[in-house]
Design a protein that fits this description.
This protein is mainly beta. The chain contains five helices and 57 strands.
Length: 814
């Protein structure tokens, strides 16, 4: 299993080499964060893209790329406009760039001879409708499509309209059983290819149910129709709530310099509506009958030169004007900002975060941290918040005398400010669960509030199609001062780690234990070596075994355990030794696992899964044991894998995908690995990704039970059998677990020596997974315990100092 020392990189890795691009499944994010309604145009080898700004000003941030994967912002085209601007169409015609967009009940156009500007002032086209789409007829006449299938002619210069709108297209009739918001035919984007005008439209509504949105295709020989719907519709659609991406739609198609075609569109990350709609890309192909459909076959572009990707959000305010990352809310007032001596002075407005002056950035990560140094002026409240709209926000403000904590727009509490007018504020957002902190020096932090849930702050509850964005706030009088604004992905990496956490169980209690180490050699159990969780409080069988802990790509902790008490009859919890007849179902014969998720290792959300309740095909399984968790980078999903057998047959290793909330399987269990001799059991798999290879250590009951290794290029199968035994034990052992020494190219293979009279853990160390050094057992060599003995089936991950200190403090450990 992938250990925390190999914390998975961001959910989407931006790459440009052929190998790396082919190794990833589509769709994939090209711009993360709230960048909806993408419109993209190719100009030779260059690609330009922009999105809906809504009320965020200055608007229409334009991005540049030469490979469609790596994007860099270059300018904001429309600083100020009236209303909420959205759904643009960026095109180039006769050497000039045009940007069409709707706002305030009409459609507007701006133009520029250079994509970097200067751009013209907005010109009112005096035509209603939304989501304009520009197209040029074969005779040079220009037309503008809007939603609901209407089209109107444009003047030759594209800056006014001629005549009236005409209804020429009624959309594609999707199955009435599909769960959507409604028809909502919109987002017409048009191209001309091989004698046909192709119109790419959106239907189904842009939010609401996960399966709402879609992209449909129609074609015609004439811009006025008649339009023929594609037999391959929809081009893009979210069919299931289990999809990684919800409400996929609103697309533009574009070709590249290699002749490939792509569709660029937006979608919500599953469970993360608060982040807004992110920009995705997927390759398409043209069929022999002249239609487009998605494909996996593509020859990607290799850029001429590598450029920095993305938009830097952190700011030391050392420039002469605001950076491209900043926007105002419902105003464009650059005169309210002064930049001087690496300080941002923000003129106050209003009395609460709802009507205060705000500068916002677009968050790009599921788990992130923002902090800033703040000094409030006389009569001024200043601070740091997460802002969706006037009715949905959360954060910290201070007037120098007290902190005002907004848990939401309706709930606020006041805390005395003992720091003063100058303070450092921080918001840690871990998967929509926030912690608010303050500091005098930016090093030692005090928690002001925690477990602030912001997951509901999104369009489905508050409308508007916005996103929850970090914002600097200045309300009341005077000017607030801000220094050193910092934004970062808050998923710790190995360089941030300084401690080791071990989880294990013990046969005498069937409870969950934790132990900490600062050096990876000496471990001390928390809670005075008593269980931190009793098995009878979390398990159907009143006992847990085989705990495994994993840090996911979102930074959360995922713990999986076997739901089983092997001494339940002895302890008076069962009248029989096993839940079912041991002659038929074998030793243990449980059917359940326990899945738990936490952001802080203290507060856990738990789900009990019983396979016999999932499907009839699992009614007769003999056991479900030793679950572990890993992240499948190819599918972009969490995967649990575990030991399972049918009745009393040999054990095999299985896997299934699980949702990010870690409370529901998203696929049926499939075979992961079985021993070459089908009569021999393989159990207790542990998978670690190292240098592109997945190394699975497992237990083979081929004679005396011991540890073997199998290696694959993919996490969910194709493991190659290796006959070598990798443990040095003369007696039976099980439960292998591989973890890395922090800052060293050394890995430790830990295992449970259950075959000896007193249970213990054994350890072997390697740097190449061929040569292993025997470190002996706990308290017999370099590995030590300080206050516990006889641990069973353990797993180890890395922790930051802050995480370890918080855990120690919670359990009263010095």
């Amino acid at each position: 299993m992938v250990r925390s020392s190999f914390l998975c990189s961001l959910l989407f890795v931006f790459v440009c080499s052929i190998f790396q691009i082919k190794a990833q499944e589509y769709p994939k994010v090209i711009i993360s964060g709230d960048y909806p309604d993408p419109s993209i145009v190719r100009d030779g080898r260059d690609y330009y893209m922009t999105h809906s700004p809504f009320y965020y000003m200055p608007g229409f941030l334009i991005w540049h790329s030469q490979d469609l994967i790596n994007w860099q912002p270059i300018c904001r085209a429309v600083p100020e406009y009236t209303g909420s601007a959205m759904a643009p169409d960026l095109i180039k015609h006769n050497g000039r760039f045009y940007l069409y967009f709707p706002s305030e009940g009409t459609n507007w156009v701006v133009w520029a001879d250079d994509i970097k500007g200067p751009w013209s002032k907005p010109v009112d086209l005096k035509v209603n409708g939304i989501d304009p789409g520009h197209v040029v007829k074969d005779n040079g006449e220009r037309y503008l499509y809007v939603d609901k299938g209407y089209v109107i002619r444009l003047s030759d210069d594209g800056l006014s309209t001629i005549g009236e709108r005409k209804l020429v297209y009624e959309g594609w009739q999707y199955p009435k059983e599909w769960e959507t918001e409604g028809m909502y035919l919109e987002s017409p984007k048009l191209i001309f290819k091989d004698g046909y005008y192709y119109m790419i439209s959106a239907q189904g509504g842009t939010a609401g149910p996960p399966t709402s949105h879609m992209i449909v295709v129609a074609r015609s020989k004439n811009v006025h129709g008649p339009w023929e719907n594609s037999p391959y519709n929809p081009l893009v659609h979210t069919y299931s709530a289990n999809d990684n991406w919800w409400s996929k739609g609103h697309g533009t198609i574009v070709d590249d310099i290699n002749g490939n075609w792509w569709v660029v569109y937006h979608a919500y990350a599953n469970g993360y509506h608060a982040l807004g709609r992110q920009t995705l890309i997927e390759p398409i192909e043209w069929t022999s009958d002249g239609w487009c459909r998605t494909t996996a076959e593509v020859t990607p572009i290799i850029p001429e030169k590598q450029v920095k990707h993305g938009l830097e959000l952190s700011d030391n305010f050392g420039g002469k004007e605001l950076g491209l990352q900043w926007t105002f809310w419902k105003e464009y007032t650059p005169r309210s900002v002064i930049l001087k001596d690496n300080t941002l002075y923000l003129e106050a407005m209003g009395t609460t975060p709802a009507d205060a002056r705000k500068l916002l950035v677009t968050a790009t990560d599921k788990t992130y941290e923002v902090q800033v140094e703040v000094r409030s002026d006389k009569g001024n409240d200043a601070g740091l918040i997460l802002f969706y709209n006037e009715k949905a926000f959360a954060g910290i403000l201070s007037d120098g005398k007290q902190f005002t904590i907004y848990k939401n727009a309706e709930t606020r509490i006041n805390i005395p400010n003992k720091i003063g007018k100058r303070s450092f504020l921080k918001i840690l957002n871990q998967g929509n669960n926030c912690t608010f902190l303050a500091s005098k020096d930016g090093n030692n932090w005090t928690i002001l509030a925690e477990n602030i849930d912001v997951s509901n702050m999104h369009h489905n509850n508050y409308k508007g199609f916005f996103a929850l964005r970090p914002a600097l706030v200045s309300s009341g009088k005077g000017k607030a001062q801000f220094k050193q604004f910092q934004y970062k992905n808050a998923v710790p990496q190995e360089k941030d780690m300084s401690a080791y956490l071990m989880v294990f169980h013990k046969d005498d209690t069937h409870g969950l234990y934790m132990a900490l180490s600062t050096d990876g050699y000496s471990f001390t159990a928390l809670n005075d070596a008593k269980p931190i969780m009793s098995g009878d409080t979390i398990a159907d069988q009143k006992g847990i075994r085989d705990p495994h802990i994993y840090r996911g790509p979102d930074g959360a902790f995922y713990m999986a355990m076997t739901d089983l008490h092997v001494f339940a009859k002895r302890d008076g919890l069962r009248s029989e030794e096993w839940e079912r007849d041991g002659k038929i179902y074998g030793w243990g014969n449980n059917r359940g696992l326990i899945l738990m998720k936490s952001w802080n290792l203290i507060n856990w959300k738990r789900t009990n899964i019983r396979f016999n309740e999932i499907s009839a095909q699992f009614q007769e399984i003999g056991c479900a044991w030793a679950p572990e968790t890993v992240y499948d980078e190819e599918s972009g999903k969490l995967m649990i894998y575990f030991t399972m057998r049918y009745k009393n047959e040999p054990n095999k290793l299985y896997y299934a995908y699980v949702n990010e909330d870690y409370n529901r399987l998203e696929s049926m269990p499939k075979l992961l690995f079985e021993y070459p001799n089908e009569k021999v059991s393989a159990i207790d798999a542990d998978i670690t990704k190292i240098n592109g290879k997945y190394r699975m250590f497992y237990v083979a009951h081929d004679g005396v039970a011991g540890i073997k290794q199998a290696v694959s290029d993919k996490v969910n199968g194709n493991y190659e059998y290796d006959s070598r035994w990798y443990d040095p034990e003369p007696r039976a052992c099980e439960a292998p677990n591989v973890w890395k020494r922090i800052g060293e190219e050394k890995w430790v293979l830990m295992y449970d020596c259950y075959g000896q009279k007193v249970h213990n853990f054994g350890f072997s160390e390697t740097s190449d997974f061929v040569h292993f050094k025997n470190l002996e057992h706990f308290n017999e060599g370099v590995m030590r315990t300080t206050n516990f003995t006889s641990p069973k089936h353990g797993a180890i991950i890395h922790l930051t100092k802050e995480e370890a200190d918080k855990l120690s403090k919670h359990w009263g450990m010095k």
